[in-house]
Amino acid sequence: MRCDYYSQGLCRSCNHLPEPVSAQLAAKTATLTQLLEGLAVEQWLPPVSGPEHAFRNKAKMVVMGAAHAPVLGIPGPDGQPVSLCDCPLYPADMQALLHELQDFVRRAGIPPYRVDKAKGELKFILLTRSQVRGEFMLRFVLRSRDAIARIERELPGLLARWPGIKVVSVNLQPVHMARLEGEEEIFLTEATRLEEVFNAVPLFIRPKSFFQTNPTVAAALYRTAARWLEDVKPASLWDLFCGVGGFGLHCASPNVSLTGIEIEEEAIACARMSAEALGLDRISFSALDSTGFAEGQDATEVPDAIIVNPPRRGIGESLCAQLSAFAPKAILYSSCNPHSLAKDLRAIEGYRIARVQLFDMFPHTDHFEVLCLLLREARP
Known about the structure:
Layout: H1 4-7, H2 21-35, E1 44-48, E2 58-66, E3 69-75, E4 81-83, H3 92-108, E5 122-130, E6 135-142, H4 148-161, E7 165-172, E8 184-187, E9 194-198, E10 201-205, H5 215-232, E11 236-240, H6 246-251, E12 257-262, H7 265-278, E13 283-287, H8 290-295, E14 305-308, H9 316-326, E15 330-335, H10 338-347, E16 351-359, E17 369-376
Parallel strand pairs: 1-16, 6-7, 11-12, 11-14, 12-13, 14-15
Antiparallel strand pairs: 2-3, 2-5, 3-4, 5-6, 7-8, 9-10, 15-17, 16-17
């Protein structure tokens, strides 16, 4: 992939960009193999990758410069603003919209927030793209309500030029620190969610709900999870840290009872919308802490299979012990951090690692996703 930002030394986010993707995958596979050393893996499946460029569906842009000359991007090596509107990780329509948004901020006269002076209004612009229809969710992260009227003044013209923008909101983040978003979300459009579809499963994106940033590889990940669990034939299933329900909904059917648990209420609202759209009624989604939920369950009501897709910290000792004690037929573990994954796999007892597969969700970086299938060992 060619990137002028990298070649000019302006951005190093894609630190492995000069290497062929084949070499990147080999290095990631070697890292994973080393981390899982000593664990008996029955089947290593070949890594799954997607496009090298134009694959990313989310842009998180710092707003810098001045109200008359705003810049969406990052601070460069010399501290000066670098516009990343032409970043090749984004599809062409997303790049064009980012340029439009730079002009929008200028027309609206919204002063970018200055961290060094604790002055200004607009901190970030967050843009999410739905692959299925090429539609967008646009969020303005502001220090206060003072600039909302300026956004509302210019918004009709923006929506007329870009009818693909379906959701627009303002997030208020008044704290003087590098926090991406605050608690309060103010919608400026009637629509409050963006629809995506992976493998014929409708999924919904709301402002604060986590969603995978690489649709092609994410669809392959969910498809693989569903195929692996088909072999287990579970009649009941838990999906812990379920997010908007991607894993559980792919593995659900009229014959499978699914319980999804996620602490973020907005993500649970999205998961319920998807279940309703699919016409599945043996599904329950609840906004709870996953570890706390598991610890409060009766061991006699354990499902046949449990899916875990935790944040980077992993599931931790307590939940590892709880899963070991529950002893479902299968545990499907999806991880974005192979270090915490390796630690958790060593803590889960009574299981054999039947399959491991790497998914290159983040090309040109050190990061990747891993899917593991654990099957309960026969007990004497």
